[in-house]
Design goal:
This protein is mainly beta and about 280 residues long. Among the domains are: about 90 residues, Immunoglobulin-like; about 100 residues, Sandwich (Immunoglobulin-like). Helix content is about 5%, strand content about 45%. The strands form five sheets. Strands 3, 4, 6, 7 and 8 form a five-stranded antiparallel sheet that branches. A five-stranded mixed sheet has the order 13-14-10-9-17, with no helix packed on it. A hairpin with a 2-residue loop joins strand 15 and strand 16. The longest helix has 10 residues. The structure holds 2-acetamido-2-deoxy-beta-D-glucopyranose (NAG) (4 copies). The site of one 2-acetamido-2-deoxy-beta-D-glucopyranose has 3 residues, from loops. One of its GO terms (cellular component) is external side of plasma membrane. InterPro entries: FN3_dom, FN3_sf, Ig-like_fold, TypeI_recpt_CBD. One of its GO terms (molecular function) is cytokine receptor activity. It is a single-pass type I membrane protein. It is found in: Membrane.
């Protein structure tokens, strides 16, 4: 087979991209390295956004481009972009892996796109990018938006006890409804429901996490959904890191005498990102 017929054969193959090296097994081509450069690379296949029920932690995954053979002189990367509605911009990641785990707020649409990127000698030291493939995960819009809880507040009292409270949505049935809280963090196999609700008139208005296994410095994903005699109510999602929502109980009085002056200490809220406990000091002369 001479060079001409071989090339023609290659171009007849219904490949997504021209993969010259696949055709170069013929001895006549072995020495002709110029024709071995890849000219095109296919996009990743089967891009999916998978929700394992972790209340916001999603797995974006895909497979290698079709007909792609890894070669010593070729590096295959993936360029991933996902839309962050909170920051209103696309975030970029370059990876060699076939999966990326990222946190989203499931109340909003999740969009992701990925492309193949080839670098290395197989493309003569340049860079080759495929077209993008894109997918989206639409939020579940069950229930009226006004049935969603309002004013969620969670505090981690004295770094010991987590408590969340909420108010009912603006539009809830007069009776026959309730809200439910589910939570998940990365050390849990699956989301669990609150086991100790704070109730008012029989309705769940908060959760006391006493006895729950919680950890600091990691995302704690929370979903509060609900159901009523008219069907489901709109779910709300939150993510906290415990050390950021510490609230220190008030110390009634700390007797401190310094240079004949008396100081009183008051515990303060700790909404900051720091995990240093700050105290306010009132000075009485
Ligand atoms: C490969 O790259 C070298 C250096 O940039 C260049 O001189 C050569 O023409 C390229 N070959 C092809 C086939 O593009
Ligand atoms: C509760 O949420 C509503 C909006 O959903 C807001 O207008 C109101 O100020 C909040 N109340 C408190 C006490 O934060
Ligand atoms: C609330 O969310 C949890 C966790 O995703 C789910 O198991 C449950 O079925 C949902 N309940 C309602 C009423 O939507
Ligand atoms: C504070 O300490 C002084 C000196 O020990 C003591 O006389 C006083 O009763 C203390 N005050 C309080 C409120 O404990």
């Amino acid at each position: 087979m001479d060079l001409k017929t071989d090339l023609r054969l290659c171009s007849l193959l219904p490949l997504f991209f021209v993969h010259w090296t696949a055709c170069s097994a013929d001895a006549s081509l072995e020495t002709n390295h110029i024709t071995n450069f890849l000219l095109e690379v296919g996009p990743p296949q089967n891009l999916q956004i998978i929700d394992h029920g972790h209340l916001g932690e999603l797995h974006i995954q895909w497979q290698a481009p079709i007909f792609f053979k890894t070669e010593d002189e070729c590096l295959l990367w993936y360029g991933l972009q996902y839309y962050s509605p909170d920051q209103k911009r696309w975030k970029r990641v370059t990876t060699k892996l076939l999966k990326f785990i990222v946190h989203f707020n499931l109340e909003k649409e999740v969009k992701a796109k990925v492309q193949s990127i080839l670098t290395g000698k197989c493309i003569n030291g340049t860079e080759l990018r495929s077209v993008w493939v894109e997918t989206a995960l639409h939020p579940s819009l069950q229930g009226n938006v006004d049935s969603k809880i309002r004013n969620m507040s969670c505090f981690y009292y004295n770094r010991e006890r987590l408590e969340c409270r909420w108010q009912k949505g603006n539009k809830v049935p007069s009776h026959g409804y309730n809200y439910y809280l589910y939570y998940w963090h990365k050390k849990m196999d699956h989301a669990l429901e609150c086991s100790n609700y704070i109730k008012s008139d029989g309705y769940n208005i908060g959760c006391n996490f006493a006895g729950a296994y919680l950890i600091e410095f990691t995302d704690l994903n929370i979903c509060v959904n609900g159901s009523s005699s008219h069907g489901n109510m709109r779910a709300a999602y939150f993510t906290y890191e415990l050390q950021n929502i510490v609230k220190v109980d008030m110390i009634d009085k700390l007797n401190l005498t310094l240079e004949n002056k008396e100081y009183t200490w008051n515990g303060v809220w700790l909404p900051s990102k720091s995990h240093i406990i700050v105290w306010n000091m009132k000075f009485n002369t």
